[in-house]
Amino acid sequence: MAKNDVKVLGAWPSPYVMRPRIALNIKSVNYEFLEETFGSKSELLLQSNPVHKKIPVLIHGDKPICESMIIVEYIDEVWTSGPSILPSDPYDRAIQRFWAAYVDEKWFAAMRGLRSAQGEERKAFLDQVTEGLALLEEAFGKCSKGKAFFGGDRIGLLDIAFGSFLGWLKVTEKVNGVKLLDEAKTPGLVKWAERFCADAAVKSVMPETEKLLEFSKVLAAKMKGAPPPKN
Amino acid sequence: MAELKLFRTWSSRFALRVVWALNLKGIQYDTIFEDLSNKSSLLLQYNPIYKKVPVLVHNGKPLVESLLILEYIDETWKQTPLLPEDPSERATARFWAKFGDDKVLLSVWNVFIKQGKDQEEAIVTAQENLGFVERQLTGKKFFNGETIGFVDLAFGWLANLLSVWEEICGVTLIDHEKFPLLSEWIQNFAGAPIIKESWPPRDKLITKNQALLEVYTSKEAPK
């Protein structure tokens, strides 16, 4: 397929943008990466995602597909000759989708809270994050069944959903001086994280922690300088 | 023989989606009604993270989160498909169902728990969101086309619970002039076979939501 038939609108620091890129890499699909400028939204983005005005957007031919995990499922359904991203069994698919939604709605929400919280609130978010990781460690044991990834021998839906947050997880560890993935408490996830980041489909799109750390400082400064929200 | 159990409450709008999906496909199942103020040990065992209904248990294996359950049902029982076959249409359906749960539901709820200027602003947001939904019905009887599908079930709460809230608060959010397509969809969906047989009793819904809104509005009131 010609490269400009498939486009991804995104930005390098975004974990959500990583997801469709990893999925396309797994399927060996060439695509054009259109990088949004930080702080502004292109006409193309506003046109292709008028509801949320957010990245990532996959543009396949003339069709825009929005919402990162919906895009990943779309990629899996369209490019069927490549390795499967979702398992074939309906129950296994439900489990992968469940944990992917948990990571987005509960776990990363707590990680975001941790970023801006102070004092007592900070400890509460940190507890939530750690509890979540304990649950994910258990889920890893059950889903992987002794293999390398949540998806088995190869990266699957849940690996993509959770793994895309590893860059920000490392930044959070540095900024807060804590170890979130820990050989004692989450040994399975520690090894999984190394394998995930080293995978060919992931390596080229996983940002370096130092770059992400620098970016997080820029982001924090911008948020502090932002005008107060309208009441 | 496959064993299928649905844990629900009489009123849960999320559990109702699963009831509809199973009934539309003609699947037999047992129902366990939960009292959320006194959750059964089975419910807590099957849904330890969220501790909510609905839970569908198929041959001993639990499934939670209503939209995920719908996808499971559609993949396991192929008759009366809920999602279209084409991948981009499937992505579109998933997008609108998610938009419904993430944005529409909360923005509509806000209209009914807020007052004064806050309520006026909440109405603007809710109607913006409903505007997006309205446009999805252009040229279609249901979100799924000629027949009821995934997105229709996801928005099912608009076809009964919304009018309960509107009645209690005296605010009309979906009027025929601003939202002609949604208004018609509500009539078509609410009166459709299978769907109409499962609505919770309206008077009970009014009593329950009146009590719920009283709790929320007293929280929101200035001290």
UniProtKB/TrEMBL annotation, chain A:
GO BP of this protein: glutathione metabolic process; toxin catabolic process
* InterPro entries xrefs: Glutathione-S-Trfase_C-like, Glutathione-S-Trfase_C_sf, Glutathione_S-Trfase, Glutathione_S-Trfase_N, GST_C, GST_C_Tau, Omega/Tau-like, Thioredoxin-like_sf
Please state every residue range assigned to the domain named GST C-terminal.
89-215
GO MF: glutathione transferase activity
Keyword Ribosomal protein present in the record's keywords: the answer is no
Q: What class of enzyme is it?
A: transferase
Which reactions fall under this protein's catalytic activity? RX + glutathione = an S-substituted glutathione + a halide anion + H(+)
Query: Is this entry keyworded Cytoplasm?
Result: no
Q: Where is the GST N-terminal domain?
A: 4-83
Q: Which UniProt keywords apply?
A: Detoxification, Transferase
EC number, UniProt record: 2.5.1.18
Q: In the UniProt record, which is one GO cellular component term?
A: cytosol
Domain of life, per lineage? Eukaryota
Q: Which Pfam families match?
A: GST_C, GST_N
State the family named in the UniProt similarity comment for this chain: Belongs to the GST superfamily. Tau family.
Q: What is this protein called?
A: glutathione transferase
TrEMBL record, chain B:
Domain (GST N-terminal): residue spans on this chain: 2-81
Domain GST C-terminal, first and last residues per copy: 86-212
**Which E.C. number(s) belong to this protein?**
2.5.1.18
Going by the UniProt record, its keywords in alphabetical order are: Transferase
Entry keyword annotation includes Transferase:
yes
Q: Kindly state which reaction or reactions the protein catalyses.
A: RX + glutathione = an S-substituted glutathione + a halide anion + H(+)
List, in alphabetical order, the Gene Ontology terms for molecular function in this entry. glutathione transferase activity
What is a single cellular component term in the Gene Ontology annotation?
A: cytoplasm
Q: Which GO terms describe its biological process?
A: glutathione metabolic process
Give the similarity note: Belongs to the GST superfamily.
User: Could you tell me which PANTHER family the record lists for this protein?
Assistant: GLUTATHIONE S-TRANSFERASE, GST, SUPERFAMILY, GST DOMAIN CONTAINING, GLUTATHIONE TRANSFERASE
Q: What is this protein called?
A: glutathione transferase
In its UniProt entry, the species of origin is given as Castanea mollissima
